[in-house]
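Exam revision sheet. Question 4 asks you to relate a sequence to its structure. Input first:
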Amino acid sequence: MKPRHKRFAFIGLGLLVFGVATVLILNAFQSNLVFFFTPSQVASGEVPQGRSFRIGGMVEDGSLVRENDGLTVRFIVTDTAKRVPVTYKGILPDLFKEGKGAVAQGKLNADGTFVASEVLAKHDENYMPPEAADALAKAKASGAQQSKSLVVPQGGQGREDSL
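Answer key, structure tokens:
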């Protein structure tokens, strides 16, 4: 093998290793991405099926219910236009309250309940998670009326059940 061919072989091997490393890094990055969606986007079926995502908005007043086990809580997240029921098993942040902003990370069940693996709440009186604040501002800007229905997505498309 001539020295020129050896150089091409090293360059080709180097490009192959670089390409494989790039694919592995991008694949790992893609699997760790968690997107934010509003209850209105959940209702319209824009959420990924079977993947984890974040949902945010206001915790509806009077919707917080604790189960008998003391760890499971149910509440409703709303952007004033649509409402999504959320179930979380764990200890809620100290500042988590009804009527305040919250962001939950988890997956959407087949029955339309968002099963949260993590719940974040505001950390001071004037702060609201930016995603939740944007969602509320967009819902108010669209002039949407407050809905009294829960979002129950089925088969990738959202539908609503009246209360």
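Marking note for examiners. The radius of gyration is 22 Å.
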